[in-house]
């Protein structure tokens, strides 16, 4: 998904703007980005570098220095369950529990065959269609609480 059409980048842009595009806000921006995406992918780090006018090597260096930042999910596929306020109100906790039970992993974990990593995010920027999950970079809107994996389970191998 392109950074221009992905609502998560709009949310990240908003967070960076709030911090005044200050280079010194890098740690806060990385925290916000992880909250939005569930992890810090290369495209996200490049986006941050560009917006803060910092060298990519600096942004990458800081992101890899701290253990609390995840650079990429371990699994071949990943699901990010949004647990932000709008999604929480619409039952995201139930969605998370269902997926945890189905795959026998907790948020932050990866299945033993490394087919799936499960992550959470604070808000992926599409609150109007909550509850939301992101499956392999694709935003799934109005996710069913009863069967949150109905159209994606087949793809998880
Ligand atoms: S709270 Fe889930 S998209 Fe905003």
Automatic annotation (TrEMBL):
<keyword id="KW-0408">Iron</keyword>
<dbReference type="Pfam" id="PF01257">
    <property type="entry name" value="2Fe-2S_thioredx"/>
</dbReference>
<dbReference type="InterPro" id="IPR042128">
    <property type="entry name" value="NuoE_dom"/>
</dbReference>
<comment type="similarity">
    <text>Belongs to the complex I 24 kDa subunit family.</text>
</comment>
<feature type="binding site">
    <location>
        <position position="82"/>
    </location>
    <ligand>
        <name>[2Fe-2S] cluster</name>
    </ligand>
</feature>
<feature type="binding site">
    <location>
        <position position="123"/>
    </location>
    <ligand>
        <name>[2Fe-2S] cluster</name>
    </ligand>
</feature>
<keyword id="KW-0001">2Fe-2S</keyword>
<dbReference type="GO" id="GO:0051537">
    <property type="term" value="F:2 iron, 2 sulfur cluster binding"/>
</dbReference>
<dbReference type="InterPro" id="IPR002023">
    <property type="entry name" value="NuoE-like"/>
</dbReference>
<dbReference type="InterPro" id="IPR028431">
    <property type="entry name" value="NADP_DH_HndA-like"/>
</dbReference>
<dbReference type="GO" id="GO:0046872">
    <property type="term" value="F:metal ion binding"/>
</dbReference>
<protein>
    <recommendedName>
        <fullName>NADH dehydrogenase</fullName>
    </recommendedName>
</protein>
<dbReference type="GO" id="GO:0016491">
    <property type="term" value="F:oxidoreductase activity"/>
</dbReference>
<feature type="binding site">
    <location>
        <position position="87"/>
    </location>
    <ligand>
        <name>[2Fe-2S] cluster</name>
    </ligand>
</feature>
<keyword id="KW-0479">Metal-binding</keyword>
<feature type="binding site">
    <location>
        <position position="127"/>
    </location>
    <ligand>
        <name>[2Fe-2S] cluster</name>
    </ligand>
</feature>
<keyword id="KW-0411">Iron-sulfur</keyword>
<dbReference type="InterPro" id="IPR041921">
    <property type="entry name" value="NuoE_N"/>
</dbReference>
<dbReference type="InterPro" id="IPR036249">
    <property type="entry name" value="Thioredoxin-like_sf"/>
</dbReference>
């Amino acid at each position: 998904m392109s950074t221009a059409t992905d609502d998560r980048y709009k949310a990240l842009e908003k967070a960076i703007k709030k911090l005044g595009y200050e280079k010194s806000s890098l740690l806060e921006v990385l925290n916000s980005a992880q909250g939005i995406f569930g992890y810090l992918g290369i495209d996200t780090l490049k986006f941050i570098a560009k917006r803060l006018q910092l060298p990519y090597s600096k942004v990458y260096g800081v992101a890899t220095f701290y253990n609390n930042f995840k650079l990429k999910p371990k699994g071949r596929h990943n699901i990010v369950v949004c647990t932000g306020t709008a999604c929480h109100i619409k039952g995201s906790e139930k969605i998370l529990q269902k997926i945890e039970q189905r795959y026998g992993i907790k948020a932050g974990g990866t299945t033993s065959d490394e087919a799936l990593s499960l992550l959470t995010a604070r808000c992926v920027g599409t609150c109007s269609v909550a509850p939301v999950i992101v499956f392999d970079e694709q935003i799934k809107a109005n996710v069913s609480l009863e069967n949150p994996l109905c159209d994606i389970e087949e793809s998880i191998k």
